[in-house]
TrEMBL record:
Gene3D superfamilies: YVTN repeat-like/Quinoprotein amine dehydrogenase (2.130.10.10). It is a single-pass membrane protein. The keyword Zinc does not apply. It comes from Gossypium davidsonii. InterPro entries: Apc4-like_WD40_dom, Sec12-like, WD40/YVTN_repeat-like_dom_sf, WD40_repeat_dom_sf, WD40_rpt. Keywords: Endoplasmic reticulum, ER-Golgi transport, Membrane, Protein transport, Repeat, Transmembrane, Transmembrane helix, Transport, WD repeat. This is Anaphase-promoting complex subunit 4-like WD40 domain-containing protein.
């Protein structure tokens, strides 16, 4: 089924990463900080409360990318866009565009409980925090560089994969050099430091219970027990397969799955694994082109695939059939996909500087 219920916006930044902002958690943190500041004033300058202005639930998506180090004139930036589900649209202008100078935010991850955004630059990783923007705008969410320096991730080279567990208590980081580091958050106490987990770490994901971490190289997938820091399984590719992305099914049921998106001689396939035996239980060829982006909805019902040709596919995980398709969703290859927390929408991003909001049709209510 081809979809027409989607909205495309261009923001002038080639995107490499995307994630939803956990607005309720962010709002709570900002309100707590504001109260602390007000208490410090000791009622010297009483002003009317602005609480009513932030009670309306808002939806934001954060995107990161840029033109790199050259003098192309294309900025490197973190972009925040407002999502309007009533009109099914992204804001035509960014809520904020926080430029990062000559440093390209090549990968990013959003803390699930509002602690901020971590971006991977060429040599180091940097934390950005949420803030309320100045003035009386409707869209009040902003971004600032954190005073907290991630010393353990300074001068470590380009990191290609960053992810938090669902609780936001553990951070995993994988490098172009094959290193895998896992930290407690926010203490940054290291719990796993593997110098050669892969020749290069392409993708990482935690299981929904946080017990396992999957790390992916081109030809090998490793499953780590987070508590013991030991490898419990190694999954090898087939003859014509190149592993590209990995995601655990985020359903807390008796049979959670691990999905690996692979590029083959015949297009893109999704490989499904049992998370008890770690045996492959299904191989599903889903697209004719190479897969360039992949994600799983939080309810586990849908898989999203983006291709090098700019097409977008939403796949029903129950039968591995394409439920929705957006041909030429982007002019360039799709680089990032992120589902809304309620699984009703998908934001895709591309090197063509565009972001697209797509509502998922025929979603059965639970």
């Amino acid at each position: 089924m081809t979809d027409t219920s989607s909205d495309l916006q261009k923001y002038g930044v080639p995107f490499y990463g995307a994630g939803w902002a956990p607005y309720n958690h962010i709002k709570s943190k900002l309100a707590s900080q504001e109260k602390i500041e007000e208490d410090k004033k000791e009622e010297k300058d009483p002003t009317p409360s602005n609480d009513d202005e932030i009670t309306t639930p808002l939806n934001y998506v954060v995107l990161a990318g840029g033109g790199g180090e050259g003098r192309s004139g294309i900025p490197n930036a973190i972009v925040v866009s407002h999502v309007n589900f009533t009109s099914n649209s992204l804001s035509d202008q960014p809520v904020v565009k926080h430029e990062t100078g000559s440093d390209l935010p090549y990968r990013m991850t959003v803390h699930p409980h509002g602690d901020g955004i971590i971006c991977a630059f060429q040599q180091s990783c940097r934390l950005f925090e949420w803030k309320e923007s100045e003035g009386n705008e409707v869209h009040k969410l902003g971004v600032k560089v954190s005073e907290k320096v991630l010393i353990q991730l300074e001068d470590v080279g380009q990191q290609l994969a960053l992810t938090f567990n669902s609780e936001g208590s553990v951070l995993a980081v994988g490098g172009e050099d094959g290193s895998l580091r896992v930290f407690k958050w926010p203490s940054m106490k290291i719990v796993l430091n593997e110098a050669q987990a892969h020749s290069s770490v392409k993708n990482l994901d935690f299981s929904c219970d946080g017990k396992f971490l999957v790390s992916l190289g081109s030809g090998l997938c490793r499953i780590w027990d987070v508590t013991s820091s030991k490898v419990v399984a190694s999954l090898a590719k087939g003859n014509d397969e190149v592993f590209a992305f990995c995601r655990f099914s985020q359903i807390n049921d008796k049979n959670p799955h691990l999905y690996i998106a692979a590029v083959t001689d015949y297009g893109g396939s999704i490989l499904t694994y049992n998370t008890t035996t770690w045996k492959r239980i299904r191989t599903s060829r889903v697209v004719r082109e190479a897969i360039s982006a992949f994600n799983v909805s939080s309810d586990g019902k849908f898989l999203a695939v983006g291709t090098v040709g700019g097409d977008l596919f939403i796949i029903n995980s129950a039968n591995m059939r394409v439920q929705m398709m957006v041909k030429k969703a982007h002019l360039g290859l799709v680089t990032a996909l992120t589902f809304s927390p309620d699984s009703r929408a998908l934001v895709s991003a591309s090197l063509d500087s565009s972001a697209r909001l797509t509502l998922i049709k025929d979603k059965t209510s639970s």
